[in-house]
Amino acid sequence: METNSFLFAIMILVENQVKSKERVTEFGEVYTSQREVNAMLDLVKQETERLDSRFLEPACGDGNFLIEVLNRKLEVLIKSHKKNQYEFEKNSVVVVGSIYGIDILEDNAQIARDRLFNRFIEIYKKLFKDSINQNLVDSIKFIIENNILHGDALTLKQAESDEPVVFSEWGAFNNKIKRRDFTLADLISYSPFEKGTLFSDLGDEVNIPNPVKEYPLVNFDKVFETC
Predict the structure, then answer these.
(1) CA atoms in the 13 A half-sphere facing the CB of 20
(2) Do 158 and 102 contact (CB within 8 A), yes or no?
(3) Which of 87, 110, 124, 222 has a Cα-to-Cα distance from 94 of 20 to 30 A?
(4) Virtual CA dihedral for 47, 51, 54, 58, nearest 10 degrees?
(5) Would you place residue 188 in the very low, low, confident or very high pLDDT band (cuts 50, 70, 90)?
(6) What is the dihedral of CA 75, 78, 79, 80, to 10 degrees?
(7) 80: nearest Cα among 54, 100, 50
(8) Phi (first) and psi of residue 126, to 5 degrees
């Protein structure tokens, strides 16, 4: 009886990590369990607790890794600024702007966006339900839509075109945000963290890519205007 119960538990675990056999066959889609997510993120625990430390999940699925990164950063944000709405809002743009993902399946990308947005809104409304800043809400949604993309991390192109995947850097300067767009191909090829760009650890002797587009500074809760 104990053996049967164990096998049943394993079957349930596997089923929870697979949406369909067809998706596994065509895309190799198998979801990472919560226990595995936490174990891997614990290896870089210090980074998950830095509000501005950037994370890119190149096959994000429906967001299991990304939502846990957000949860860990929100815990820090809540402890630091739960009684100061202005500081919470300003730093929330930094937090959300630091989380990036790509998935080749459009439904996964959309679910991941929804999970991140809904989780942030849940916390934000719980803390400041009587003074919601709609501009901030719109800005958070805008950042998530630009940071979680439907694309192919192998070809570095958008899923439905030959256009390159482009990510935005959301740089904080006091109460302002500077948006700069970079192709993912450039970022992973040339950009070290210590130079202030997005994703790499290649060292100092590299060529820093130029952004494909830059935007004027805007207030942190007006990011949605950088279209």
Answers:
(1) 4
(2) no
(3) 110
(4) 90
(5) confident
(6) 120
(7) 50
(8) -65, -35
Contacting residues for 12 by C-beta, under 8 A, at least 6 apart: none
Do the Cβ atoms of 77 and 51 come closer than 8 Å?
A: yes
Least confident of 6-10, 81-85, 94-98, 197-201: 6-10
Q: What is the pLDDT of residues 104-155, one digit of tens each?
A: 999 999 999 999 999 999 999 999 999 999 999 999 999 999 999 999 999 9
Q: What is the CA radius of gyration of the chain?
A: 19
Q: What are 218's two structure tokens?
A: 């805007």
Quote the pLDDT of residue 160: 81
Position 221 scores a pLDDT of 97
Distance, in Å, from the CA atom of 185 to the CA atom of 64, rounded to the nearest integer, reads 24
Contacts of 140 (CB under 8 A, 6+ apart): 92, 93, 96, 117, 120, 121
CB 97 within 8 A of CB 227: no
Q: Which class for 63: exposed (0-12), middle (13-18), buried (19 or more C-beta within 10 A)?
A: buried
Partner residues linked to 166 by β-bridges: 183
The structural domains of the chain, with segments of one domain joined by +, span 28-225
- This prediction has a pTM of 0.81
Write the DSSP symbol of residue 169: E
Angle at 15 between CA 13 and CA 16, to 5 degrees: 65
Alpha-carbon distance of 107 to 148, in angstroms, equals 12
pLDDT beyond 50 at 23? no
- The H or E element containing residue 21 is helix 21-27
